[in-house]
Amino acid sequence: MSAEATNPEAHPEARPELRRRGRTRLDLRRLGRAALLGPTSRDRLPDAIGHVAEAHRAHHPDADLSVLRRAYLLAETSHRGQMRKSGEPYITHPLAVTLILAELGAETTTLTASLLHDTVEDTEVTLDQVRAEFGDEVCFIVDGVTKVEKIDYGAAAEPETFRKMLVATGNDVRVMSIKLADRLHNMRTLGVMRPEKQARIAKVTRDVLIPLAERLGVQALKTELEDLVFAILHPEEYESTRALIAAHAGERDPLPTIADSVRGVLRDAGIAAEVEVRPRHFVSVHRISRTRGELRGSDFGRILVLVGENADCYAVLGELHTCFTPVVSEFKDFIATPKFNLYQSLHTAFATPEGYVAEVIVRTRQMHRVAEAGVVALGNPYATATPDAAADPDEERVDPTRPGWLSRLLDWQQSAPDPDTFWTVLRAELAQDREITVFRADGGTLGLPAGASCIDAAYAQHGGAAHGCIGARVNGRLTSLSSVLSDGDTVQLLLAQDASSGPAAEWLDHARTPAARIAISSWLESHPDSAMATTSAARAPLSVVGARGGGANAVADLPDATVRLAGCCTPVPPDAVAGFLVRGGAVTVHRIHCAAVAQMRAVGRTSVAVHWRATADCRVTLRAESFGRPHLLADLTEAIAREGVEVVSATVEPPVEQRVRHSYTLQLPDAAGLPALMRAMRDVPGVYDVSRV
After folding, report:
1. What tens digit of pLDDT does each residue of 660-679 get?
2. Residues in contact with 445: Cβ distance below 8 Å, sequence separation at least 6, in sequence order
3. Residue pLDDT, tens place only, 495-510
4. Cβ proximity of 497 and 638 under 8 Å
5. Of 175, 389, 493, 601, which one is least surrounded by beta carbons within 10 A?
């Protein structure tokens, strides 16, 4: 948006419009001056946007260009007299941004808004004027791209501008398409800015705009932005990479010969396909040089195969793997499992008899268009809407192209009112460049960044209610909340019934998504006492001792013998039992299926017949396995008391990975009530297993 000067040294390899066959480089300085000085007939398009019209018609042959003429005339008139820092008329900037989008195949509404994207910010034109002349959609997009006033926001103007754009992008992705093209042209023309300002703009581009371009699938803009940022922030490495590419240019390139071989194989197989060599951009060459060391000729590019249908992609793959030696580790199927940014292709590699390894990308022509232009290739997201349906201006615009990561971003930004927090968390969120999909127990799906845990899934699914999450099942198995999820997992989240339950401070160690981290931190800050109680409870084991009950109600057929119930199996009536004489003349009673019975018999212990007394009371030890949460001990003891059972003693072990083990020695008035007691303990939120010790 701001006017920077043209950089005459900008490398042509990073300019996608120069790679278009049959299209020459435009002299925007000349076109801009012609637009200001030359006469323009009202019945035809101004000469200055003739190239835009040509590029637009190449993708949309039936497009109505009259609206572009009106938008250009308004932009040129309103910007008249404004100059860029390089001395060019300012109108050259919206023209260049619009041409970038036209080359990518943007539809007419996007190009109209692109021509006007700086008018409200830098001229006297108002949003009401734009709405009256071009309609609500163009007005919404122009408003979304317009910066907030620095006089109102001060140092927070930049993060708040991005927040505003992202919120608008959540309702219409075309807002960010224009922003990306705008930043690309400004990066191309950054040459005469002060070095420190170049570095500042390049860092924001690296941390925010490039990840957004990647997530929106606009690879044509992303790769050029990467090269331009690389040149500014790493000039020495950039120059060494440039020298490496220049040295390769003077050598024989094996890729054209390999491409000819591929054409021959596909022609013989009867597969109609276009085969071309795609040179790597600067950053890509730099990356592979760091991983592979010395590069060979085939490392400087890849072979692209374009076909008509999805089935043809797999047919090409079969022929390549049959006629050449495939490198199995390089095969990736992004058609069956597309990337989260809409990208689809087959990736493979094969070795040639000469010892070269050629990387191959196979895709349909439609996949290629989406791979290059991403959301720009989707056109108008509202084109399928009913034309007669009246739009409610107060209703949120729901964009069917909104991806999952953007929905998550829009959710958590509402909880980050502080601009510095928003800016820091935004960069951290965008740095996570892979996404996984997990399935909910109810059949829905959750999109999460790679490395997300069950805690992240809980907040993604339940929002603030996830404060009471006490555990999770992943693929049907109980697991801790800290467990990292994998792509395709099915997760069932277990919530406490107690509304006062809250997260533990340790959750922050396992939360990866901003939504989860912000929500947990906010709860802990507003409940400092609960956080301290949770921490202290986690550090020390807790023992509770109650009144001792009567003796065991097992009777041995041995006069005056002391009878003890074995702690390994804690028999209770009406369990079948066996008794054995041990040192000191005591008789130990075991359940008949206890492993210790076989051991006693093996060592020759004297067997003693035992039976239960007529009284029904008994003592038993139960172990409760649970997920840690506040008030769990109180809830368990309350459940035990409701069954009329006396607690002889209780021990709570320190939690391990959010799991807590409780052991209770209980005096039951009636052994027949043991199953009901165990069911009541299992029904306590957070308890997932109760067993006899």
Report:
1. 888 888 888 877 788 888 88
2. 437, 438, 439
3. 876 656 788 888 888 8
4. no
5. 389
What is the rounded distance in angstroms from the CA atom of residue 416 to the CA atom of residue 525?
14
Q: Answer for the pair 300, 259: CB distance below 8 angstroms, yes or no.
A: no
Give the N- to C-terminal CA distance of the chain in Å, as an integer: 71
Average pLDDT, the chain: 80
Per-residue pLDDT tens over the stretch 294-345:
888 888 999 999 999 999 999 999 999 999 999 988 899 999 888 877 789 9
Residue 53 CA to residue 255 CA, distance in Å, equals: 35
Six-digit token string for 452: 């997300």
For strand 646-652 and strand 659-668, is the pairing parallel, antiparallel, or unpaired? Answer: antiparallel
Token pair 């005591």 in the structure block, residue: 586
Residue position matching structure tokens 């192209």: 401
Please name which of 531, 478, 534, 484 lies closest in space to residue 512, comparing C-alpha atoms.
484
Pairing verdict, β 357-364 and 332-333: unpaired
E-assigned strand segments in 177-333? 274-279, 301-307, 325-326, 332-333
CA atoms within 13 A on the CB side of 249: 9
Burial track 321-347 (b if 16+ CB lie within 10 A, e otherwise): eebbebeeeeeeebbeeebbbbbbbbb
Q: Omega into 574 within 30° of 0, i.e. cis?
A: yes
Length reported for the chain: 693
Average pLDDT over residues 131-136: 93
379 neighbors 107 (Cβ within 8 angstroms): yes
Confirm if 350 and 254 have CB atoms less than 8 A apart: no
What tokens does 585 get? 């003349």
Q: Say what the pLDDT of residue 16 is.
A: 40
Q: What is the pTM of this model?
A: 0.66
Which H or E run contains 556? strand 554-556
In terms of Cβ atoms closer than 10 Å to its own Cβ (0-12, 13-18, 19+), residue 83 is: middle
Tokens of 196: 């420190």
DSSP state of 103: H
> What is the 3-state secondary structure of 336-364?
CCCCCCCCCCEEEEEECCCCCEEEEEEEE
Question: From CA 147, how far away is CA 158, in angstroms rounded?
Answer: 8
CA distance 670 to 572: 10
Range 412-422 burial, b when 16+ CB lie within 10 A, else e = bbebbeebebb
Which sequence positions are flagged as catalytic? 121-122
The span from the CA of 29 to the CA of 405, in Å, is 39
Taking the C-alpha atoms of residue 229 and residue 235, their distance in angstroms, rounded to an integer, is: 9
Question: Rounded CA gap, 322 and 327, in Å?
Answer: 12
Q: Of 690, 541, 568, which Cα lies nearest the Cα of 625? A: 690
Q: How far apart are CA 248 and CA 441, in angstroms?
A: 54
- pLDDT reading at 29 higher than 70: no
Long-range contacts of 673-678 (CB under 8 A, 24+ apart): 673/643, 673/644, 673/645, 674/572, 674/618, 674/620, 676/643, 677/622, 677/640, 677/643, 677/645, 678/622
Q: Which two tokens stand for residue 230?
A: 């690389």
79 burial (CB, 10 Å; 0-12 / 13-18 / 19+) is buried
**Segments in 105-234 forming alpha helices (H):** 108-115, 119-122, 127-134, 136-145, 150-153, 157-171, 174-188, 195-204, 210-215, 219-233
pLDDT value for 305:
97
